TrEMBL record:
It comes from Paenibacillus cellulosilyticus. InterPro entries: PQQ_b-propeller_rpt, PQQ_rpt_dom, Quinoprotein_ADH-like_sf, WD40/YVTN_repeat-like_dom_sf. This is Outer membrane protein assembly factor BamB. It holds the Pfam family PQQ_2. Residues 133-386 form the Pyrrolo-quinoline quinone repeat domain.
């Protein structure tokens, strides 16, 4: 008879066995270590970037109104489909009617006709516009028709009131109408095959109308033409001359286009010599009365087809002439030209992916980013570079006084304090497409595709 062996287990062993049994009851049998585990799909690459969000309170528009401001032929906003003046908003509604709204309340003040084109201009209480058939009209402040031209202008580019005349541009054609009656005074057309484009933005000086064209030949360049303001007769033309940067004492100051074709003159240390030539042209005769030359040197890398730095047309702000000279921005005294004179002041332009907006506001030179559309500014007081932070690509930017307004591609509209760059408020627009922001009194009008939204400015931005 076998003797039973009485196995006595240590207390700690009993505890472990009990715990293991409990685990089996709760979770089931544990898998063997060599069993393949089934996992969720794993990405081949997983990378995260931080981002920025504009943090400003959202404001609700005071009112909204459906309008016709979209051009389906090129899928873009019309830039002259609405205007805001004297506490009113003038626009073309969804039915093609010209309508005036109270800017503060959105209340309709008057409606006039239909079949209006998005080509509106305002001058001294009168609204000027064009019908779809090309006739130009003048509407009084009360909404009444003052006159309608008999002439139909095809392809209107601009309506430009100036004194007692309304000038209308249409590519190669230029019209002059009596501002009081709408009667045609004269019209002219450049029919030469060398002309490829004509522009608005006319200038009137000493009874002469100055207009800029693009002219093609062996080389294409801008050209300014002069016309007698009373008769429309062409007085003179000047090829390779840009739109005048200034008109003073009957003289047009025009930068001359230059073509170096890559043949740069270099200095002993390998820099290239560059210059900007500006003619002073008699507005009446076209005679060159003087020439200014501003010269400088800049770094040159022969291995690069595009050189580092920022270049572009000059800017005249009062008597301060700014010239973009690659890695340098230079300021000259326009009122006291001296040959070979050094700049009054210079700043380093160590910026990337930007181009100049040709505007100085609040003692800041403005630039725009090629990739994001966002604005950058250089303080002319100390050269510091600043910006207004956005969180999506910028579609539209406007500046009024100390307010900077931005419409983004995500359909969000932001308002900033221009001086501090701080975001003040945001608005959710009806579309990702924006047109020029309008302002009258303490109201701003946000233009997006098919819609106007009116926002009352906070006290901080009035």
């Amino acid at each position: 008879m076998k003797q039973k062996t009485n196995m006595v287990m240590p207390r700690w062993s009993k505890i472990l066995i009990g715990a293991g049994a409990t685990a089996l009851l709760l979770f089931g049998a544990l898998p063997e270590t060599n069993t393949n585990q089934v996992l969720a799909d794993q990405p081949a690459v997983s990378v995260n970037w931080g981002t920025y969000e504009v943090n400003a309170p959202y404001l609700k528009p005071q009112w909204s109104f459906a309008v016709s401001n979209w051009n389906s032929s090129y899928s873009g906003m019309e830039s002259k489909a609405a205007l805001a003046e004297d506490g009113r908003v003038i626009a073309i509604d969804s039915k093609g009617q010209l309508i005036a709204l109270d800017a503060a309340t959105g209340k309709s003040l008057w409606v006039n006709g239909n079949s209006w084109r998005p080509m509106l201009t305002y001058n001294q209480g009168t609204v000027y516009g064009a019908l779809n058939d090309g006739r130009v009209c003048a509407i009084s402040g009360a909404g009444n028709l003052k006159w309608r031209t008999a002439v139909k202008v095809e392809g209107i580019q601009s309506i430009e009131p100036n004194g007692d005349t309304i000038y209308v541009t249409a590519n190669m054609k230029l019209y002059a109408f009596n501002a009081a009656t709408g009667a045609l005074r004269w019209q002219t057309e450049e029919k030469g095959l060398e002309y490829s484009a004509g522009f608005g933005g006319l200038q009137l000086v000493d009874g002469v109308i100055i207009r800029t064209y693009i002219v093609q030949g062996a080389l294409s360049s801008s050209q300014i033409n002069a016309y007698d303001a009373k008769t429309g007769k062409q007085l003179w033309t000047r090829f390779k001359s840009q739109d005048p940067i200034a008109i003073r004492g009957g003289l047009l100051y025009s930068v001359q286009d230059s073509y170096n074709m890559g043949n740069y003159e270099t200095t002993d240390d390998g820099q290239i010599r560059e210059s900007l030539v500006m003619h002073a042209i008699n507005a009446r005769t076209g005679e060159v009365k003087g020439t200014r030359t501003y010269s400088w040197t800049s770094k040159f890398d022969p291995t690069q087809s595009v050189q580092v730095g920022i270049n572009g047309a000059p800017i005249l702000d009062g008597d301060k002439l700014y010239i973009f000279q690659g890695e340098k921005l230079a300021q000259y005294d326009f009122s006291q030209y001296k040959p070979n004179a050094a700049p009054v002041k210079t700043w380093g332009q160590y910026l990337k992916d930007v181009y100049p907006l040709y505007a100085v506001h609040g003692d800041r030179m403005l630039y725009r980013n090629y990739n994001t559309g966002a604005l950058t500014a250089m303080k002319l007081a100390n050269g510091q570079v600043i910006g207004w932070q956005v969180d999506n690509p910028v579609v539209q930017t406007d500046i009024y006084d100390n307010g900077l307004y931005v419409g983004q591609s995500d359909g969000v509209f932001h308002a900033y304090d221009y001086a501090t760059t701080k975001p003040i408020f945001s608005v959710k627009a009806s579309s990702r497409y924006f047109g020029p922001t309008l302002k009258t009194n303490d109201m701003i009008i946000v233009q997006s595709k098919g819609m106007l939204q009116a926002v009352k400015l906070p006290a901080a931005m009035k």
